[in-house]
Amino acid sequence: MTAPRVPGAQLRHGRVSLALSFFIQGAVFALLVTRIPAIQDRYGISDGLLPVFLAAVPVLAGVGSVVTEQLVKRVRPGRVLRAVQPVVCLALAAVGSVGSMAQAAVALAVFGLTVGALDASMNMLGVSLQRAYGRSIMLGFHAAYSLGGIVGASLAWAGAHWKLSLALLYGPVVAALVPLTLLVGRWFVDRGREAQGDSEEGTAGAVVPLAMRLLVPLCLVMAFAYIGDSTVSNWSAKYLQDVLGSSEQLATVPYNVYMVTTLLGRVVGDLGVRRFGAVAVVRAGAVVAAGGFAVVAAAPVAWAGMAGFTLLGFGLSVLVPQTFAAAGRYAFERHGPEAADMAVARLNIFNYVGFLIGSPLVGALGDVWSYRGAMLVPMALVLVTLVYARSFGAPAARYGDGHERPRTADVG
């Protein structure tokens, strides 16, 4: 089964616009999560209530992803993305400017629901564009997300350094990003649907049911990758300071290093997939990530621990983008583009499952055992990826191995 041809210039515009969308989302999400202590202080959220607020966002994001799976049977994924990304940005501004805890809870709920729809529709478009290109480009989109995360975290640091209120930090950023989201949305390419016309009514009934059990290996890899990622984001600073005896200032460095190496890994990852194939890249990423956790667990001093977190960034960087690509490719080859969208939406739920499990799991193990020992658990989970690595191979068409020509000419 092949996708309709789309002009090369249109694909290039779609690729750039989608990369900008990933960048914007990376910046917005980083601005939220890096200022959680400030949000807690502004609205007087107690330490006991804070985990409820934090857990509600990924839970609602999972709901948003489920809703999107049904919605894209009738509406193009690009239209969903165009609609929800400005709302996500506005929800961020509301989190920083509303007047009460209840209103902040509503704003976070809106953020969670729409960010689930955004993540799902964004990755649907990424998978379909990769299919149209005929070679691996998915890692590049996630590299743009990582770059946006670095920019967002840097803006959050500047806001904290200059003691800006959340409203003053978020307001100008959102005022700049909302028009940009509306602009870039004009050039999204919906898996060649331009060749099929705007009407999608009646297509839902033609979709062959997608067996969830066949996606289980990829769902597990997605969840385990995010358990590893949430371990770094939530525990790297505490680990360096409490276990390895670093200064408070040095303890802030590992996550920044992790973000940078994640970006670098994704920048070069597509080249690796094209040269060696997705299966080899995923295996290498799992081994490097597991090695990073092992170094962190055994590190005698803070600088050795930082080296481990550096390896983690390189290793984990390739797993999530390739998991989305593999799920979409598998479903498309068997059932068509609508099934590919369903697969991406279902897989996206396990992003949030891993995020919800990772931090409490490591914290509980650290309390009852040791934080060094706790680092071995995500290491073992990441290594499970090796068992399922064959799931990343293309079932019918091969992508990124140098043996297939792009389906569209003059694609840059």
From TrEMBL:
<feature type="transmembrane region" description="Helical">
    <location>
        <begin position="137"/>
        <end position="160"/>
    </location>
</feature>
<feature type="transmembrane region" description="Helical">
    <location>
        <begin position="104"/>
        <end position="125"/>
    </location>
</feature>
<keyword id="KW-0472">Membrane</keyword>
<keyword id="KW-0812">Transmembrane</keyword>
<feature type="transmembrane region" description="Helical">
    <location>
        <begin position="280"/>
        <end position="303"/>
    </location>
</feature>
<feature type="transmembrane region" description="Helical">
    <location>
        <begin position="309"/>
        <end position="332"/>
    </location>
</feature>
<feature type="transmembrane region" description="Helical">
    <location>
        <begin position="166"/>
        <end position="189"/>
    </location>
</feature>
<dbReference type="InterPro" id="IPR036259">
    <property type="entry name" value="MFS_trans_sf"/>
</dbReference>
<dbReference type="InterPro" id="IPR011701">
    <property type="entry name" value="MFS"/>
</dbReference>
<feature type="transmembrane region" description="Helical">
    <location>
        <begin position="369"/>
        <end position="389"/>
    </location>
</feature>
<protein>
    <submittedName>
        <fullName>Putative major facilitator superfamily transporter</fullName>
    </submittedName>
</protein>
<feature type="transmembrane region" description="Helical">
    <location>
        <begin position="16"/>
        <end position="36"/>
    </location>
</feature>
<dbReference type="InterPro" id="IPR051788">
    <property type="entry name" value="MFS_Transporter"/>
</dbReference>
<dbReference type="GO" id="GO:0022857">
    <property type="term" value="F:transmembrane transporter activity"/>
</dbReference>
<feature type="transmembrane region" description="Helical">
    <location>
        <begin position="210"/>
        <end position="228"/>
    </location>
</feature>
<dbReference type="Pfam" id="PF07690">
    <property type="entry name" value="MFS_1"/>
</dbReference>
<feature type="domain" description="Major facilitator superfamily (MFS) profile">
    <location>
        <begin position="215"/>
        <end position="412"/>
    </location>
</feature>
<dbReference type="GO" id="GO:0005886">
    <property type="term" value="C:plasma membrane"/>
</dbReference>
<feature type="transmembrane region" description="Helical">
    <location>
        <begin position="344"/>
        <end position="363"/>
    </location>
</feature>
<keyword id="KW-1133">Transmembrane helix</keyword>
<dbReference type="InterPro" id="IPR020846">
    <property type="entry name" value="MFS_dom"/>
</dbReference>
<feature type="transmembrane region" description="Helical">
    <location>
        <begin position="48"/>
        <end position="68"/>
    </location>
</feature>
